[in-house]
Structures are given as structure tokens and as C-alpha cells.
Fold these 4 entries.
Entry 1:
Amino acid sequence: MSNNAPLVVFRVLFGLLMAAESFGAMATGWLHRAFVEPRLTFAIFPFEWPKPLPGYGMYGWFAAMGLAAFAVTAGWRYRVSAAILAFLWTGAYLFQKTHYNNHYYLAVAVCWVMVAVPAHRRAAVDAARQRETACPRWLIVAFKVQLLIVFTYAAIAKLYPGWLNGDYLAVALGSRSHRPVIGPLLSEPWFQMFIAYSGVAFDALVIPLLWWSRTRVLAFVGLLIFNLFNSLVFKIGVFPYLVLAWTVFFFDPRTIERLFWWLPGLGRAPEREADSGPMTWPTGGLRYALIAYFAVQVLLPLRHYLIPGDVLWTEEGHRMAWRMMLRHKAGRVTIVARDPSTGETWQIDQTEWLTGKQRRRVATRHDFMYQFVQVLKADFARRGVPEVQIFAKDSKVTINGKLSGPLFDPNVDLARVDYHPFSHSPWLADPPPK
């Protein structure tokens, strides 16, 4: 057994961060841009049957999510409030992918993990009558392993020429050179190359260094600087702070108790609640559930190796694989519809259907194109053209401002193609030579 202070403190911090994400989405206008403004929302395929609430209904959804997050923080009716938070956040994640971020997926995984773990038995409203100060030691280790997986895959994904030669960072940092104070530094080539190579080394080493007691404080300082830099420069929501909150699992529980002494009900655990003796693992169904969970976490990011083609070009296997901030992708496409019975053609006015960000996604991500084509097919069928043909003409995609070429085969009728998230789509054009 182990002192459960890290798990309890993480519950408090995680709940606060999820509440900040929920209410912040409303306050910053993100929610309006993602759910109210668009005529269409592009769901995570194949979960297209759950639909977001119409009109301003998603404001109620996110408000309920924020309140559930506060209940998780307080440890009030914890199992129920954690399950509500997990359900609502998963729905918000599946409803739309135009604004996809890796930390949204990480939050989905953690939300469901938090439903299952006993994080409410200390410093919680639910623990007012019965306070427990211990939890299984393997549970603390499992949280560490999860973060190790995230950072390890992030490091591996960076080992490609566009990152190592600074092409991506020249675009990503150069476009932010107007930022006060740090802006001029971001445009310096030497700084961009420093970030490129230190980023790979940092992602690969920071979690092992956190795990080792002799380098833990140094690794935490590095993680603090790294995440504050990402938050300041890239504006990626609560993800940097979620990673910092996660570090409670790497520190001695007594240290966590001293740092968070101000949490009501945390107190000091008896001396017997300490990491000692051999590790014991869960048994029965819980063991198989843990194995299944980590099998998904380890194997899902590898799926793009089984799909022909370059994942940077095709995006096949890109999501849910910890491929974070790797490339800048831009593009354009003209969509033409044709009635085969009359030969009449129409150029689709994409502004009638899509927001600016959605148009960029349709031009550069084939799953967006596939889903948009299904909408167009249904619309033409209602207008009396059930066998409409749809073509992607003048397609052009650039990666990091250099690699450039058509993404879609202009001669393929996209109204007749299939899409499978775990296999290659042969209707994509080959990438240009590098």
C-alpha cells in the first residue's frame, strides 16, 4: 500500500483544471466557434450518431460539465460526479474534431480512470465520516506510466526531418514573433534549432528523470519552464498545467502532504502508509482491465506504422497517438459536383457550409473531406440528384511551408469511395518527392 496523498491532490487539481477548461471554453468564445457558429460539426469517426445540442444548448452542457468538475474537486458524491464529468467530456470530445487537441483525448482517458480510482477517501466531502490515507501502490505507478507513454511517443514522433531541420518551428515560432518580450527570440534560427533538439531530448528523458529521486527536482524545474513556455507561446489551454499537476505522483507523499497542507482534510497519514516492500498487482477482473487499458495506450499510437503512406501527409493514424505540435499544414481545394445524367456541373460554395477553420480541415484532412462529401450527397439527393458525382479539383497541400502537392486524386468520384479509420484510403494522391 501507499500513502494516497498524491492521488487525492491530483483529484483536486484535475477537477479545478477541468472546470477551468469548461467555463473557459464559454468565456473565450471557443464554445461558440466550435458548436454554435458552424452549420456542420465533424464528429470523431465513426461516432457520428451522438449529436451536439442545437443552438445554445452546448452552453448548458459545458456548464454542467464545469459543475461536475467542481464536485470532483470537492469529492462530493464523487463516483457520480466523476462519471457525469467523464460522460459529458467524452461527448464534447466526440461531437467535433475541427478543434482537436491531444489534451482533449488525454482528458477523456483520465476522466474515466478517475471514475474508477478511490480518490475521494481523503480531503473530500465524502470522507467526512470515514477517512482513508492509503491506496494500492500500483495505482500510483500506473499514473506515472501513463505520462511516460505520452512523452515517449511525443519524442518518437519528432524524429522526422521537418522537425529536426527546424522547418516546422520556423513556421510555428516565426509566426509568433510579434509576441511582447519573447517575440524577437522566437524568430531567431538558432533558438528554433535549440527548441527542436532540446524538445526531443526533453520529451524522451523528463519522465525517467522525474522518476529518479536524485534528478527529480531538476526535472520538475525543467518541466515547469517547458510547460509555461508552451502555455505562453502556443496557448494550448490547460494541458501544460495538467502535466504539472500530474507530477504529484512522482514526489514522496510526505512532500505532497507538506506542500498541500492547506487542503481541508488532507492532514498527515500514519507512518505505516508508505511505499515499502514488494509491489503487489491487482487480481481478477481489475488486472485484465488494467492490462487492456495500457494495451490500448501502447498500441493505438503505433497503428500508423501498419497503414501504407506517410502519416504526416495522409493523417491516417495521427490522432490519439501523442503526435503533438509536429507540423504546420495548409491547403486549398475546389469541390465540383456533377449530375451524370445531364452532365451539369456545380462548384460547391464551401462558405455556405463551412467555417474558415473547417474549410482548411476539409482541404488538408481526408476524413473531413469524406464526411463533407456525405453531407453534400444527401443534399443533392434531396434536390433530385441521387447519383451525384463529387470531385476534389485543384487540391494543394503544403507541410511546414515546403512539401507541396495535391492531396486528392482529381479523377476519383469521392461520392463513391469508402473510408476506414484503420486502413489506407487509395483515393488519396501520393505525396510529392521530398
Entry 2:
Amino acid sequence: MQRTYICIDLKTFYASVECVERGLDPFSTNLVVADPSRGKGAICLAISPKMKMLGIRNRCRIFEIPPTIKYIIALPRMKKYIEYSADVYEIYLKYFSKEDIHPYSIDEAFIDVTHYLKLYKKTPIELAKTVMKDIFKTKGISATCGIGTNLYLCKIALDLTAKHSSDNIGYLDEEKYKKELWHHKPLSDFWQIGRGIEKRLNKMRIFDMYDLAHTEPERLYKEFGVNAEFLIDHSWGKESCTIADIKAYKPKSNSISNSQILFEDYTFEKARTVLKEMVEQGSLRLIENNLKTNSIQLYIGYSKDVIKATGGSQKLSEYTNVYSELIKEYLKLFDKTTNSQMSIRRIGISFNNVIETNNIQLNLFINQEKIEKERKLENTVNNIKNKMGKNSILRGINFTDGATAKIRNTLIGGHNGE
């Protein structure tokens, strides 16, 4: 049975929310969502449709906006955007079962509407319009929709054809895809093809989806390994994965990660302070979820990418979630691999091979009493933070020069959390 999917995107979501909150029309208002305290180089998280009409690109920096254009700057309010996103999800639930909905991001969702077309006696376009009108009537947010016979095609219809349609709806099946988009350029416009992959394909003299579809598979597998299968399928407009497959997916191994872009260039010592804070937060997260790890990973990115990122991974002798043990290993890895002479701008950590504490056999060669005492203390800290707020209890290191945890505890996704 041929399936039908829709992918709904809330247009310039953050900017639209800010316009709605101010009683303004996003299609006639110049508004950008950005934090001016970060300087003229601050990235605009969203710009209103009116600004796009003026030729301003989305995700631009403040200094790139022509000085002749007058506009409103709205400070990001991530909590507000999450509330709007949750309200829109409730609208989806009026029409569809949650088993048929896959939230892809805060402003985008895939929905399998195959069985609902007969139920509502509507065509895919009619059903999409009904949902989009409900979103606008209820929340004042305009939406765009892609419709396709598989998940890939509905996403491509959203990204490449809906924006050129008067009703903001695009439709693709495999034949229409080949007819209209086989010769579309650049390749990086297509979902899941980034600039890096595009450059590698161009070196192989592959410049569009037609070229990709007619390239010898052996050449692609040699260059991309198993990932060549997805490139080949997508070049023909094929995608076997369904929303049911996504819902049923269980990763072979689990990990917990955290990363941050620093507010400014950091020295080796200041970055070391931030690393300690990040490991502490990660340790508390492991304990709260009754998890332990036996493998850690570190990523250090340098200012203006003047040198290649450093870091690496380290296998631990035992599974643990205790801060004192984790920080000891992280600092060893940091001191060993980080260039102490270069300015640092990005830090990332990851706890790999995470498993439940109950699955771990006790080790007779370590001081279990000491470990348990520290774990109970950290559990208490977690309980206080959950009840009173993340900044209700802090370590002395959180008040030292370069520490970021106190500020970041008030942010959501690295932006203002109000």
C-alpha cells in the first residue's frame, strides 16, 4: 500500500512567535530574534518573513543587516517557544494519533496521514490545509507543508517546492521528483547532504541528483561506505524508513553528551574550569538517571579554527558516575591532548557505553563505602537543584573567573530561557 506523509514546518517560528506576542503581522514587520548583548556578531536565530522579502538571509549576523533597514530586536525566549511548540503538538493530536506523529524539531513534524485520508474524506492537500488553518487560527503562526509518498519526499517537498507554491504546500512522488528536481543545484539543498558531502560528490563529477542516480554504485560505496546506500536511494526519490520504524528504533549503545560554544576566546586554564563544570553536570545527570559509564570522550575546538580540533576518547577501568573519578580522567585527557597556547572556543564531552547501575557487578578492589558516600551527596545536590532550581546550590568553582555554569543554568539551548 502506498503511504502518504506530510511534513509541517512553522514559518520563521521564533520571529513569528515574537510578532504574535506583540500583536504584529510577521509579513509586514521587520523583526529579528537575537541577543544584542553578544555584540554585532551575534547570530539572528530567526528573522520575520518581511525581512526575508527584503533579501536578508536567515541565520545572518546582526552586522550583516543593512543599516538602512529599521527593525525590532527581540531577545530569544526559549521557554515561550517551547510552550508554543507544545500547543501546536496538541493541535496535531486533535487529528492524528501520537503513534503517527514524529516531532523532528521544535518547529517541524512528520505525520503519517495514510489512514486518515479515508477517515476525514479529504485529499492530502485538503487535510494539510485543515491542519495549517487550525494552527494559524489557534496560535497565529503560519505554516508550510510538504506532502510525499515517503518521508524523504515529503521533506524535500517542504524544503524545495512548498516555498514556491501560492498555498505553501508542495507535493512529490518518485516520478514528479525525478521530473522536477533531478537537475536541481546545488546538491546541498537536499536533505541530509551537507557542504562536505557535496564537495566530495563534486570531486567525483557529480553535480545533481541525476548524476548521482546514474553513477556506478561501486564508486559511491568506495567513497562513502554503507552511507552510499542512502545517497543512491534518495537520488531516485526512494526511502524505506517509516515513522513506525523510527518509533521502534533502539540504539545499540547509549551515550550522554553536552557541548557549548564559549562566550569568548578562552585560555587553557579558563577552559579547564569550564570542563570541570561540565563534567559535574554530566555526573549529576548520570546519577539522577541511575546510569554509569566506562568510556569518556572530549572535544576541544579552537578560536577561528586556526588548528584542527583536539580531544579523544578514553576507556575507564570501571563503570562509574561519581564526579571525583570522572573529572580525574577528563583532566588527564584534556591536559594530554589540548594545545595550551591556542585560544579555545568550543568544548564537548560525552559519556559513552552508558548502562543502568543495576547491571553492574561490584568490584572488591575499590572503596565502595567512599564511593557510595559521594554518590549520596550528589543525589542530595540533585534533589535540591530539581526542587529549588539549578543555581540553588553551586560549587566554589562556579564563582571563579571563566566559569559559565551559573549563567548557562538560566539558558535553554544556549539562549535566554525566559
Entry 3:
Amino acid sequence: MWVLYAFLAAFFAGIMSILAKIGIKNIDSNLATALRTIVVALFAWVIVFVVGSQTTIASISAKSLLFLILSGLTTGLSWICYFKALQLGDVNKVVPIDKSSTVLSMVMAFIFLQEPVTANKLFGMIGIAAGTYLMIERKKIDKKDVKSGGWLIYAVLSAVFAALTSILGKVGIEDVEPNLGTAIRTLVVLAMAWLIVWATRKQKGIGKIDKKSWLFLVLSGLATGLSWMFYYHALQDGLASIVVPIDKLSILMTVLFAYIFLKEKLSKKTTVGLVLIVGGTLLLLVTF
């Protein structure tokens, strides 16, 4: 069942990237992250009370709480960097770099979580790494790109923090009901996001957000909430070295929607890269 949850997490994460790209088009990225997180937090806590897991809060160990908080902090940092990169660069350039966190997460799972290293995982990881490299297009920089060239730095930082999130989240969620763990982490992200907004005085931009942007911010928040819910259900029962790569298949949905709605096209090179990523991920599900 955890494999199904991982695929559902990937589906909603892919939709989220496009909804967020449209929603933050004319909004400060930090403000957009903070607003989206309100939706995610509300959604997460509604689920907690629906399933009744709020009664288990007192039984959470200090270790689990610490790792959930750390996971929330790295999630917040990853989001801030990711949406800043999305605002500055093309979806089809930003997403592959962000998804490179897959390989880093697998390496960390092998080292820190002592998850078994098998031939299919090694070959799958090589395929994912090669595919990610091919999808990172190097284009001639024009005047517009010079102004927004920081997207690459933000995308790389997003990947690093995302990898840390997976490992910290795996440890923190072990003895906690997944929906409750997701909700607790979301509160940490929410607090962090709004502290940054208030520190940079970006809250003044709320009144300038149009109805279309509000709609897409809310929808992206709901998609994120669903993705997180399924992701941490999968992470609790499955291996991080397999759950994380499946979740990163969200790139398929992202690329598809970017092509349909944002008119962003893939070159032959990036298409081969996408095929390698998908093939490498599916290889993780085969044992030999």
C-alpha cells in the first residue's frame, strides 16, 4: 500500500508545481509560500481531527518531536528556495534540479538509516542521476537571464534542503501517526514562512493579489496538503530510498502540465533525461 501512497504523493506534487508557478507569477515568492502554507496547515489539521489522531499528541516522544521540527525547518527552507527559483526560471529548468535531491536522499538513507544497498537501487540511482543531468539545460544567457540568473542557486539549495527533509522526516514520523506528523511539521513551516515575510515587510503585498492568483495559491496549497499526506503515510511504512524517488516522479506531471498550459517544450536531450529518470525510478521497484 505504501507504494500506492508514494505514487499519489507524486501525482499531487506534480500538479502543485504548475499551480504554484501560475499563482506566484506576480507575487513575492516568500509571501506566496506563506499564504500557501496557511492552506496546507488548515487542510492538515482538518485531516488530523477527522481521523482523531490529535489524541496522540501527548504520546509523541521528545526525539520524534525534535526531528519533526527539524524536518519542518528544512521543508520551509526548501520551499522558499524552490518558489524563488520557480519565479525566476522556467519550470522545466528548475524542477529537474530540485528533483536531484532524489539521489542525495538515497545516499543519506543508505548511510544514516542503514537501508540496504542493492543492485537495482544502484542502477536506478545511476539512471536518475544521468537523467537529471541531461534535463538541466544550458542555454545561452541573454539580458533577461542575467537579471534572473539566481534561479540556479535557489534550485540547488532547494534540492539540498529537500534531501535533508526526507531523512529527518523518516526518523520523526516513525512513532507518530502520519497525519499528525504532517500537521506538526506544517506549523513549523508556517511559522518560519511568516517570520520571513514580516522580516522583509512583504505582507503589504497581500492587498495587491488578484483573484486568479488567490485561486491558484489555494489550489496549490490543497495539492501540497494531499501530496504531503500520502508522502508521509508512504514514508512511515516504506523505505526512504524507494519512497523518495517515486515521489519525485511528480516531474512527469509537472513537465506534462508545463507543456500544455505554460507552453514550455522539452528538447530531445531533456526528453531522454526524463525517460532515464522514470526508468531509473521504476527499476527501484524490481528486485534482482
Entry 4:
Amino acid sequence: MAFKNLRDEIDATLARDPAARSRIEVVLCYPGFHALLYYRLAHWLWERRWFLLGRFVSHFGRILTGIDIHPGARIGRRLFIDHGVGVVIGETAEIGDDCTLYQGVTLGGTRPSQDQSGQKRHPTLGNNVIVGSGAQVLGPFKVGDGARIGAAAVVLREVPAGATMVGNPARQMPRRSARDEARPEFEPYGVTGEIPDPIARALNGLLGEVATLRARLDEVERERSGADGSALPLAARQDCSCDGERAS
């Protein structure tokens, strides 16, 4: 049945969004939940080869919610789409159970062309994946279970299970400690705490090296100038000149 487990999806929204106060509020006021209703019906039609009708239902749902889910996509249970405006899920995308998508997320393909029709060209998300707002996951690869995609990240290659990806192009952050892994918790927008920028870190290292080299160069120049007396302090140069006058 197309609409089974709807109660689980409502409860998933209540569990992950502190702004949700009741089940009836989720049913009436949450576009992410509405988009899933339209998707379930459109997908049911799509699997029975009623392609045009499935696309029409999907298109109608996109007009009402601002969330574009292709009826050919495969979505697991308890998906939570928060806010949802601008979310795009492509035809061959697959989403596991208990995943979370924020606004502006794209699960898309690369180099679209007619000869790719019927081929896998969109990503596959494992279970418990969180994709932060504005993130782009592009290509037919796997995002492992429990992965976190930071806001505005652009992911172009496979993501290991439990990894946290940030940046453009996305790079993997250091893994959490074993103690943190033993106590997983929901992380809104994919990443919490300070995010170290690997590019900024490299630039800061280069700037430090430049400052060190500049200081060493100044030191060498002072030593060479001091050898011919041109860089001696003013008082020292005056003493030298007086000694020369007495000698004459």
C-alpha cells in the first residue's frame, strides 16, 4: 500500500523537529510530509507503468510544496524533509531509512544527456544519513550509513559510512572518537561545533612559513650589512669616525 507507515513518518518529524508540537500540526502544516504523500502515490503509479500520471502527480506536489521528488526515486521509511523548499531528488536516487534532508538539497546527476536514460545516475543514501541545507550530492555513488553532509557541501565521490563531509569539493573531516561513536546523536544540519576548513588551514601554514622566511632574510641582511659597518648603530658609527680623526 502506498501510504503505509505514515504514522512512523509523522513521529520521525516530531522526534527531529523541536518546533513540531503535535501530529495534527505535522499533517496539516509540514510541506515535507505533504511531499512524501504525493511521492508515495506518484511512485505507486510509476511502478505500475502509469508514467504520465505519476509525473503529473509528482509535478502537482512540487507546485504545492516546492519539493521536487521524481516518482522513480526509491525512498525508505521515516524520511524527514525539514522546511524543504528547493529540495530535488532525481529519478534514480535511492534513500534509506531514517534519513534527514534540509532545504535546498540536491540529489542529482552529472553530465545529463539522452544516452544516460535508464542508467543509474543519482546517488544512493544509506540509513541514518543527514544532508545539510544547500548541499549537493551529485553522481551515481553510495553515501554510507550514518554519514553527515555539511551545509553547502558539494559531494562528488563515494562517502564512507559514518563520515562527515564539508566544503566544495567536499572533504572528509577527522572521525569522531570511539566514545562519541558509541553514543550517536542527531546532528541538525549535518555538522555541529567548529568546522576546520582544510584549505584555510593550508593557507595559514603557508603564511606562517612566509613570515618565518622573511624574518630569516631580514636577519641575514643585517648580518651582511654589519660586516661592512653600514648597518652599525649611529652611536657606534660616530665613535668609529672620532677614532679615525684622532689617529690622523
